[in-house]
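Lecture notes, continued. The same structure-token format from the folding unit now serves as the input rather than the output. Read the line below as a description of shape only.
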């Protein structure tokens, strides 16, 4: 492992390796530097090193290397410069997201069921027989799957590193929001965040543990849960959405506080969607009722039209609850209590052995709270027709136009309640007809129900008979419907007779008004006015005393809260001062350790240089001595060789000299003979020339 005293040298070395295509070696160089002891104290060049390090981790898909590097960098800079760690983490997530998006752009039809699942046997078998374009499509899909798996691993790694740290809460919230929006694996992501909260509650003595008594910390965790709830409902993961609701309620129970009024409408609106999908009409209606109360009390921008539509939704949701089928027993009570706590947001519930939520109590509460009076006229008429009036023969014809008008009202989707209301109207019609008839023809009964054909009415009546809402049976042979009695005959006629008696009493009161009783009361109680006045004065005084006591208690409670807040702030200030002192001490200690380490490294470097120079001089002297020794030996050897050569050359030189004398003498004799021949030839030629010239002179 190469040791770099200067971090910038390691970065340069990594760049050189990257330029020649050795990314793995460059990553190893940076990893060795980051995990070394010299990297524990934060410096400015470390940020650039981490940027290059996470880039290599993403390019090579080395999630474990990235995790080790980020943990080391978090430990080195969370006390000094948290912003640098945030920048590195966001850069890491941005690179992984870009790679995944590029892979998805190449394969738009990506559909991964589980990002952590291995390949199925049939997929492996299919991969061996495809070819051509299918092979390319399969490779693109596999590449995209690999990058999305790496992206999910990246988010999970970052969440594990940032979890349960008060100094990294803001970054954790942003990453949780971005990961939820990415919808990589919403269920596993929510489960991971849920485990973080459980571990936080388990290890209470953890350093840098988030303090839920601080409003900022609580708001961060609440925002995260509400974001999970929104994303889960948008993606249609209703089970996970309900678990997010339970997480919000559990978090509030942990700190004994209620969320802000601005978050509660979101909470109850999502609850209405969840209960609507799960077909739990009773809880859906209660959630609508709570949402109506919040909007009416806290939403100042709510106009009359919106209030009317919300009230209509509440009433229709309550009417859509079946009038039968509510189970009883311990399990039902526990479930009812659980839902009542979630809907009512009661942080300290007390179990009571009774039905806490029911259709009858909800309807009576809607009337007493004035919700029904805020609804539209069509909804009011529908409520009175279904709950109070008795019209067995024309109930269907009166309700049908009302339902048609309700389905067209406003922007709120009131039409979702029409099927349930049609079923309820059919049940009410059967109930009222059973009180008037013992036998009725099927054809006539089908004409009374304009919503369904008789087969659907028969299915609805089956549930009603099973839950003892109405007693009837269908005789298809005779073509009639036979109604029975759930009680005595007088019980069956009780409701119409009671209504008739109340109506007659009203008529009699209008025709014969009751005489004034004031004079009789004065005769019986002569000092009634004075007594009433005294009692009224006493009640006013008692009310004033009660109000004063309440104000005093509130003042004491407020004073107590102020003292607790002051003590908490004082303790927090002392804790911060102690933390600052500890950080300053640690900083001084780190500086001292760094100076000592630098001095040791400098001394070690000088010692290494000194030993290197001494070793070089010693080697040089030794080499000179050896060279001189070799030279002396060579001189002596050359002297011996030269002397031996000369001794051996003496007889050879003499022999060569004698041989040369012989050869020169032979050559001399040969040259003499040749010269004599040439001179003889020249003499002969000269004589002949002389004779020729003589003849020429004689001829003149």
């Amino acid at each position: 492992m190469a040791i770099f005293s200067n971090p910038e040298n390691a970065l340069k070395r990594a760049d050189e390796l990257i330029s020649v295509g050795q990314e793995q070696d460059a990553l190893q160089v940076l990893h060795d530097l980051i995990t070394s002891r010299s990297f524990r104290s934060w410096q400015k060049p470390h940020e650039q090193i981490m940027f290059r390090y996470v880039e290599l981790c993403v390019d090579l898909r080395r999630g474990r290397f990235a995790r080790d590097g980020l943990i080391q960098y978090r430990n080195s800079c969370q006390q000094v410069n948290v912003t640098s760690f945030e920048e590195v983490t966001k850069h890491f997530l941005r690179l992984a997201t870009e790679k995944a998006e590029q892979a998805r752009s190449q394969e738009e039809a990506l559909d991964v069921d589980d990002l952590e699942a291995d390949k199925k046997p049939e997929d492996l078998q299919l991969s061996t027989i495809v070819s051509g374009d299918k092979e390319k499509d399969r490779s693109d899909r596999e590449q995209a799957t690999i990058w999305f798996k790496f992206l999910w691993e990246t988010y999970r790694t970052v969440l594990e590193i940032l979890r349960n740290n008060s100094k990294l809460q803001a970054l954790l919230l942003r990453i949780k929001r971005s990961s939820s929006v990415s919808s990589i694996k919403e269920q596993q992501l929510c489960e991971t965040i849920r485990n973080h909260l459980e571990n936080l509650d388990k290890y209470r003595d953890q350093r840098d543990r988030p303090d839920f008594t601080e409003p900022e910390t609580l708001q961060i965790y609440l925002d995260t849960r509400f974001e999970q709830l929104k994303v889960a409902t948008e993606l249609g993961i209703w089970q996970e959405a309900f678990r997010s609701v339970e997480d919000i309620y559990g978090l509030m129970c942990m700190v004994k506080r209620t969320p802000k009024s601005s978050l509660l409408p979101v909470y109850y609106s999502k609850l209405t969607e969840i209960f609507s999908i799960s077909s739990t009409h009773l809880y859906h209606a209660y959630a609508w009722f709570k949402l109506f109360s919040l909007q009416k009390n806290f939403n100042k921008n709510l106009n009359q039209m919106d209030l009317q539509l919300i009230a209509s939704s509440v009433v229709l949701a309550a009417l859509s609850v079946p009038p039968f089928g509510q189970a009883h027993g311990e399990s039902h009570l526990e479930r009812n209590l659980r839902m009542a706590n979630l809907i009512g947001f009661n942080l300290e519930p007390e179990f009571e052995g009774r039905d806490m939520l029911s259709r009858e109590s909800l309807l009576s509460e809607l009337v007493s709270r004035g919700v029904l009076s805020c609804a539209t006229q069509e909804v009011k008429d529908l409520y009175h027709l279904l709950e109070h009036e008795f019209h067995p023969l024309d109930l269907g014809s009166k309700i049908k136009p009302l339902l048609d008008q309700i389905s067209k009202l406003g922007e709120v989707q009131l039409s979702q309640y029409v099927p349930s209301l049609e079923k309820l109207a059919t049940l009410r019609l059967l109930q009222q007809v059973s009180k008037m008839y013992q036998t009725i023809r099927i054809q006539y009964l089908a004409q009374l129900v304009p919503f369904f054909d008789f087969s659907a009415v028969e299915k609805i009546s089956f549930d009603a008979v099973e839950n003892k809402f109405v007693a009837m049976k269908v005789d298809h042979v005779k073509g009639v419907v036979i109604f029975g009695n759930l009680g005595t005959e007088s019980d069956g006629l009780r409701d119409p007779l009671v209504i008739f008696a109340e109506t007659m009493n009203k008529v009699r009161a209008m025709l014969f008004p009751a005489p004034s009783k004031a004079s009789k009361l004065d005769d019986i109680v002569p000092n009634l006015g004075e007594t009433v006045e005294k009692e009224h004065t006493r009640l006013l005084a008692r009310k004033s005393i009660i109000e004063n006591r309440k104000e005093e208690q509130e003042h004491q409670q407020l004073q107590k809260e102020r003292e607790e807040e002051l003590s908490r702030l004082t303790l927090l200030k002392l804790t911060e001062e102690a933390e600052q002192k500890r950080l300053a001490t640690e900083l001084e200690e780190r500086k001292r350790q760094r100076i000592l380490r630098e001095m040791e490294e400098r001394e070690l470097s000088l010692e290494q240089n000194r030993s290197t120079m001494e070793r070089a001089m010693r080697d040089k002297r030794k080499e000179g001595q050896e060279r001189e020794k070799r030279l002396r030996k060579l001189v002596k050897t050359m002297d011996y060789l030269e002397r031996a050569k000369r001794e051996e050359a003496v007889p050879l030189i003499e022999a060569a000299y004698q041989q040369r004398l012989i050869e020169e003498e032979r050559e001399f004799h040969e040259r003499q003979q040749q010269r004599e021949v040439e001179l003889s030839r020249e003499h002969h030629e000269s004589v002949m020339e002389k004779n020729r010239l003589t003849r020429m002179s004689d001829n003149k």
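Point for the exam: The mean pLDDT is 76.
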